[in-house]
Amino acid sequence: MSITQVDMPLPAARVRPWARWTGAALLALVLAFALLAPVIFPADPLRQSLRHILAAPDAASPLGYDHLGRSLTARLASALRLSLMIAAAAVASSALLGVAVGVLAAWRGGWVDRAASLVADAFLALPGLLLVLIVSAIVPVTPLAFWIGLTLVLWIEYFRLTRATVSRLLAAPGVQASRLLGFGPFYIFRRHLWPELAPMLLTLGAFGAATAIMMIAALGFVSVGMRPPTPELGLMMVELLPYYREAPMALVIPVAATFVTLLGLNLVAKGGRA
Amino acid sequence: MRPLTQAILYRASQAVLVALLVGMLTFLMMQALPGDMAFRIAAGRYGYDAVNAEAAEAVRRELGLDRPALAAFGTWLWDLMRLDFGTSVISGAPVMDEIRHQLGASLQLAGAALALSFLIGPPVGILAGLRAGGWLDRTLLVVSTALRSVPQFLMGLILIVLVSIQLGWLPAAGYGRPVHFVLPALTLALGLAAVSARVARDAMAAVAASPYYAFGRWKGLSEGQLLRRHGLRNIGVTLVTYLGLQFAMLVEGVVVIEAIFSWPGIGHALVHAIFGRDVPMVQGTVLLLGLGFVALNTAVDLTARWIDPRGRGAGEARS
């Protein structure tokens, strides 16, 4: 019995292109802000200014200032770049690892398959957040620790789906015919396996990035992730929470940014699946 | 159909591997502690002002920190195999006692959250699935997509700001009285219900669209009879299987939510143990959670077999 896969016959896939397009538009918006804000409103995200403590938005920083007079525009853009970069790196490396091990396990079968599945199940038993937390205690550089920890968490899903898909395809007549005609494994991977795997990778990648961003923010929020004064979404929220009465908008900014980013990723993932 | 013993054997080897993995990770964590480990642990015990070379030396001798790494790893695994988790290097109490103390509080919270999510999620999902495409179905899609984009810590933050600070109805943090349960349990439950409602909805929609369901209606069963006889049992397997998944989400949620609401549970303790580099505590806690996951999934496997004894088809992806 599979744990993560719900093997009920689902109703015929409803295509929801609007969901995917809305998600892509939201993501483009977030990305544009993260990349363009430092160009349009250049400011050092760490520079404090006592004259601007919790100041209202002005021309230099349309999002206002935080409790130390730092530009919230610059901090938010920097925090988004950090989260998105770690998430992208973790998704890329976990996809590479998961697909490679998955194809290998399905292709070789036997004890390779059993060993790989067992290792994946052992990782699956450790809640992802704890794994990231432990790795962050081992590896001293926090972004690097997040990258390694998140890769260890995210590769399992890629492995499981790749293994299931590939073992189904390898038994299909198309691959059998290609093999009989003498085509090598690279040809079979490129012509038979990759076209089936690619759309799945996009969905998993969007879900994985959402998981990564959530975990980074959650650990930052409980003060075991990034260290101040690094701008990070979760850290910004916990820093601005005590000033909620004086400047509610300052707290709303990182909250809204996190929500929009995650919503965009979830919509991109959902549009391809449900 | 896979024989029962083989399934249990597989789960057992999974449990052994989980223990090995946890042992390896926590040992690496021990080795990676910056500075002199003996000094760090002595500082954790006596406070940073009261540490001197003598105290550090005493700690070093007591914990055998001067041995080579490989020998230490051997002893480490041997202790683990005998289920000897050692004592917390900070409080000095046996890890087992500490965990037993905190687990109770966490289980109460997790149980309350799970019960609440089961009251909200599956019923809404079943209603939506019976009328796939109706207004409830569409609303549920929007609400659950939005809820899934709110991480649990953010949900906690929003509830604290709205209910505790703005309205002043409930305390933001604390433990001991029933009112303290409401906010943390609701935070966890909303996240869980957002997903379980979708799972229940998809399963129910599939069952409601199936030929046997149509046949049941055709032979004159009322909607209630149909749901009880042919609906609930068929979506039961999916929901119970999903319960195993929820455990992982619940553990992650509990770690963060306990830290936010200062709930004196296992997640709170774990964050502190990681902060203070209390490796035996981390090892015991993570091992317990990992083995708990394996045990729960074994139970889920067995329950799914009991609900639907037909077994899966040949195309089943082995867990």
UniProtKB/TrEMBL annotation, chain A:
<dbReference type="GO" id="GO:0071916">
    <property type="term" value="F:dipeptide transmembrane transporter activity"/>
</dbReference>
<feature type="transmembrane region" description="Helical">
    <location>
        <begin position="144"/>
        <end position="161"/>
    </location>
</feature>
<dbReference type="InterPro" id="IPR000515">
    <property type="entry name" value="MetI-like"/>
</dbReference>
<keyword id="KW-0813">Transport</keyword>
<feature type="domain" description="ABC transmembrane type-1">
    <location>
        <begin position="80"/>
        <end position="264"/>
    </location>
</feature>
<comment type="similarity">
    <text>Belongs to the binding-protein-dependent transport system permease family.</text>
</comment>
<feature type="transmembrane region" description="Helical">
    <location>
        <begin position="247"/>
        <end position="269"/>
    </location>
</feature>
<keyword id="KW-1133">Transmembrane helix</keyword>
<dbReference type="Pfam" id="PF00528">
    <property type="entry name" value="BPD_transp_1"/>
</dbReference>
<keyword id="KW-0812">Transmembrane</keyword>
<feature type="transmembrane region" description="Helical">
    <location>
        <begin position="200"/>
        <end position="227"/>
    </location>
</feature>
<keyword id="KW-1003">Cell membrane</keyword>
<dbReference type="InterPro" id="IPR035906">
    <property type="entry name" value="MetI-like_sf"/>
</dbReference>
<feature type="transmembrane region" description="Helical">
    <location>
        <begin position="82"/>
        <end position="106"/>
    </location>
</feature>
<keyword id="KW-0571">Peptide transport</keyword>
<feature type="transmembrane region" description="Helical">
    <location>
        <begin position="21"/>
        <end position="41"/>
    </location>
</feature>
<feature type="transmembrane region" description="Helical">
    <location>
        <begin position="118"/>
        <end position="138"/>
    </location>
</feature>
<dbReference type="GO" id="GO:0015031">
    <property type="term" value="P:protein transport"/>
</dbReference>
<keyword id="KW-0653">Protein transport</keyword>
<dbReference type="GO" id="GO:0005886">
    <property type="term" value="C:plasma membrane"/>
</dbReference>
<keyword id="KW-0472">Membrane</keyword>
<protein>
    <submittedName>
        <fullName>Peptide/nickel transport system permease protein</fullName>
    </submittedName>
</protein>
TrEMBL record, chain B:
<comment type="similarity">
    <text>Belongs to the binding-protein-dependent transport system permease family.</text>
</comment>
<dbReference type="GO" id="GO:0071916">
    <property type="term" value="F:dipeptide transmembrane transporter activity"/>
</dbReference>
<dbReference type="InterPro" id="IPR000515">
    <property type="entry name" value="MetI-like"/>
</dbReference>
<feature type="transmembrane region" description="Helical">
    <location>
        <begin position="181"/>
        <end position="200"/>
    </location>
</feature>
<feature type="transmembrane region" description="Helical">
    <location>
        <begin position="281"/>
        <end position="300"/>
    </location>
</feature>
<keyword id="KW-0812">Transmembrane</keyword>
<dbReference type="InterPro" id="IPR035906">
    <property type="entry name" value="MetI-like_sf"/>
</dbReference>
<protein>
    <submittedName>
        <fullName>Peptide/nickel transport system permease protein</fullName>
    </submittedName>
</protein>
<keyword id="KW-0472">Membrane</keyword>
<feature type="transmembrane region" description="Helical">
    <location>
        <begin position="12"/>
        <end position="30"/>
    </location>
</feature>
<feature type="transmembrane region" description="Helical">
    <location>
        <begin position="109"/>
        <end position="130"/>
    </location>
</feature>
<dbReference type="Pfam" id="PF00528">
    <property type="entry name" value="BPD_transp_1"/>
</dbReference>
<feature type="transmembrane region" description="Helical">
    <location>
        <begin position="235"/>
        <end position="261"/>
    </location>
</feature>
<dbReference type="InterPro" id="IPR045621">
    <property type="entry name" value="BPD_transp_1_N"/>
</dbReference>
<keyword id="KW-1133">Transmembrane helix</keyword>
<feature type="domain" description="ABC transmembrane type-1">
    <location>
        <begin position="103"/>
        <end position="304"/>
    </location>
</feature>
<keyword id="KW-1003">Cell membrane</keyword>
<feature type="transmembrane region" description="Helical">
    <location>
        <begin position="150"/>
        <end position="169"/>
    </location>
</feature>
<keyword id="KW-0813">Transport</keyword>
<dbReference type="GO" id="GO:0005886">
    <property type="term" value="C:plasma membrane"/>
</dbReference>
<dbReference type="Pfam" id="PF19300">
    <property type="entry name" value="BPD_transp_1_N"/>
</dbReference>
